[in-house]
Design goal:
Two copies of one chain form a homodimer. Chain A is α/β, with parallel strands linked by helices and 237 residues long. Chain A has helices at 22-31, 89-102, 122-135, 150-153, 174-177, 196-204, 219-234; strands at residues 5-7, 17-19, 39-43, 48-56, 63-71, 79-83, 106-111, 143-144, 148-149, 160-164, 172-173, 184-188, 208-211. In chain A, helix 2 runs parallel beside helix 3 and helix 2 runs parallel beside helix 7 (219-234). Chains A, B: One of its GO terms (biological process) is rRNA base methylation.
């Protein structure tokens, strides 16, 4: 039986003890039935892995004593995706869960001309990221940023910049074109794609056009395929 | 405005005319507001692409006259995935939708020792495959087979056979190990993984162990990553 992993967003790196918030305490004590003396793991979402022992199995304020702290290696190079959020919230929430499981460092809600969703429910989405991080046994929480306009994102200076669009122009397969070992940003457009002007703007800024395959993918599927291929590409090193 | 694509499962390859079923007729006439004289596309799910013109815009029995038939190239080599269905139906339904969008030819519900879901709602799942095929503008419907026991699947003689498991044994990255150009079958286990006995059985039958990454993936996520990487690998040819 492997150890349970809980989220401790506000734990200090040098903490000797920690008290879980009410939700986490309830999950730990009531749902998972942990008791005083049980050994558990804590993640602060910033790469620290804490081994702890339950000292008070209070279902509202579960306290633990920290026995060990480990700094996990940061995912490198960094993968960033700027993706136009879908009108249908469940589709993008599904994307956030899966992208976190597979491994992504930064997610930027991209507001392009044809984007239909410009606001996000930050707290709700944050909870989805946390659950996926814990579920996939990771210790770094992806950075979900505030929505940003296309004009701002297109000016970012990531070492490797890619754009996946649907115009029948010269494009190369993402997994064949991308160079591993470089911090990378990819842009994924809305249903209805980027406008030709946006695509030209991106190319002028040094973004390289890539294709994700031969079928027409929904936005959230395109995002997932991009994260999967970029992540696999980085592991080739 | 691109042409609407509708499913015509029972159309004859040499048909001169066709009448849509009630659901499709309603969708075509009431929802999409198509009228007599409009040109539409039909897919039979077996690779035929029909160009047709609406001759009777009846919202219950929409009839069309076939103007052209095209045989689309079959996806080759074939990708087959045998995956243990999840207890939570929505997770595997999501997998079926996405795997179809990205491109998969055969899906086998795999019943292994730790599989918690042995029955499937064939009709409901079939509808999900059809919707995803049309949405992604494809003309071949994936073959969703009846659930099969591990013992039967492990005896299949696909040219390339892979198994993704979580035991810390020697494994290579799927996208680096897989050879493009070969019909391929991959096995994806249940939450809780295959049993060591099942893994040994598969290896003895010539299945090669592969890893899908460094994080711990849910069953449906592992399936999606596998389909994405296999599909990309085949396009390297």
């Amino acid at each position: 039986m492997e150890q349970s992993l809980f989220y401790a967003p506000d734990i200090q790196p040098d903490a000797a003890a920690y008290t879980m918030n009410e939700d986490t305490s309830k999950y730990c004590i009531q749902v998972l039935r942990h008791e005083k003396g049980d050994s558990v793991l804590l993640a602060d979402g910033r790469g620290h892995r804490f081994t702890a022992v339950i000292t008070d199995d209070n279902r509202k304020r579960c306290s633990v004593s920290i026995r060990q702290r480990e700094q996990m290696p940061a995912p490198s190079p960094a993968l960033r995706i700027a993706i136009s959020f879908t009108k249908n919230a469940s589709r993008i929430e599904w994307f956030l869960e899966k992208a976190t499981e597979i491994g992504i460092q930064t997610i930027i809600p991209l507001v392009s001309q044809r984007t239909e969703k410009e606001k996000i429910k930050a707290e709700r989405l944050q909870n989805i990221l946390v659950a996926a991080m814990l579920q996939s046994k990771q210790f770094y929480l992806p950075d979900l940023q505030e929505p940003q306009p296309f004009e701002k994102v297109v000016n970012s200076n990531d070492p490797q910049k890619l754009i996946a669009h649907c115009l029948p122009e010269q494009k190369r397969e993402l997994h064949q074109h991308m160079q591993p070992g470089k911090d990378t940003l990819i842009l994924i457009g809305p249903e209805g794609d980027f406008t030709p002007e946006e695509i030209q703007q991106a190319l002028a800024k040094g973004f390289e056009p890539v294709t994700l395959g031969n079928t027409r993918l929904r936005t959230e599927t395109a995002g997932l395929v991009a994260v999967t291929l970029m992540n696999a590409k980085q592991r080739e090193l």
